[in-house]
Amino acid sequence: MSQTYDITLRIAYSYQSPAAASRTLLRMLPRTLPDQQLLYGAVTTDPAPDHRIDELDFFGNPCTELAHERRLTEIDFLFKGRVLCHEPSRGLDLSCALEDVPREVAQIQSIAPESPHHFLGASPRLRPEPEIAAFVRDCVSPGLSALAAVDAVSAALHEAFAFDPGATEVTTTPIEAFRARRGVCQDISHVMITGLRAIGIPAGYVSGFLRTIPPKGQKRLEGADAMHAWVRAWCGAETGWVAFDPTNAIRAGTDHVTVAFGRDYSDVAPVKGSLRSSGSHKTTHHVDVVPV
Q1: First vs last Cα of the chain: how many Å apart?
Q2: What integer best gives the mean pLDDT of the chain?
Q3: Please, which of 7, 76, 138, 172 could form a disulfide with 46 given CB 3.0 to 4.6 Å?
Q4: Under DSSP, is residue 20 helix (H, G, I), strand (E, B) or coil?
């Protein structure tokens, strides 16, 4: 099964005082993957930058580096394009036993971007948390396959968390969200990644989009009004990476459009940068993912 989407992402900033020396790194362009193709599309800005470089980062995510030398009172970042998504293959569970994952990781000698070694230890936003580790260990049992174990953790976090956009901010730590049992997709994904790493499963963060309009007769997924986040887990050498959406307790599929992979949110933030300014600023996000 396949699905094509027309996607619009607009992130706009306005500054109380004009901002100078703006340097920005954007990760807004969807990736091309075995089960996803960017048919066409582009990232643009208003006003146009004085300097621009388009490249790929270490993990293969499309990046746009911008420099604005003029003073800015407002700026818009825009992606518009069309993406074709294919349903990921879901055959038999050929993943190794949960207790065998560390041995299979150790046999991987590569440190290329897809290597599970990058996704096991602490990362810029994630550190070991004994409370989260204990919760995740209670979700799994001896004899489970790695894939079944990750499914169990995803389902347990979905049950434990209340989706609440007002409960957290982008800087909220996983342990703060975990203790409150409230948050958004970023929080739930960070908690899941922290917990999976604690039991030896390499796990990373995915940023992207969710289908805005659900298929007829189906429930609208949580997180469809903004950029969404979910989790990639490495389930052994035979199975490799599998994507899970703990916010909705499902595997990622044709409702999900991937923009970037990373160790945590810091690797995939859609807008990152620096500027000189004083006073406050306002930002607005607008996302539309419309089936063609």
Answers
A1: 14
A2: 95
A3: 76
A4: strand
CB 15 within 8 A of CB 51: no
Q: Is 185 helix (H, G, I), strand (E, B) or coil?
A: helix
Q: Are the C-beta atoms of 249 and 153 separated by less than 8 Å?
A: no
Amino acid letter for position 16? Q
Q: Which of 264, 142, 245, 143 is nearest to 197 (CA)?
A: 264
Contact 189, 221 (CB under 8 A): no
> E strands, 47-167, where?
51-56, 62-68, 72-86, 162-163
In which residue are the tokens 């790695």 written?
Answer: 146
CA triple 37-41-43, angle to 5 deg: 125
Taking only the tens place, the pLDDT of each residue in 250-271 is: 999 999 999 999 999 999 999 9
Six token digits for residue 117: 């070694």
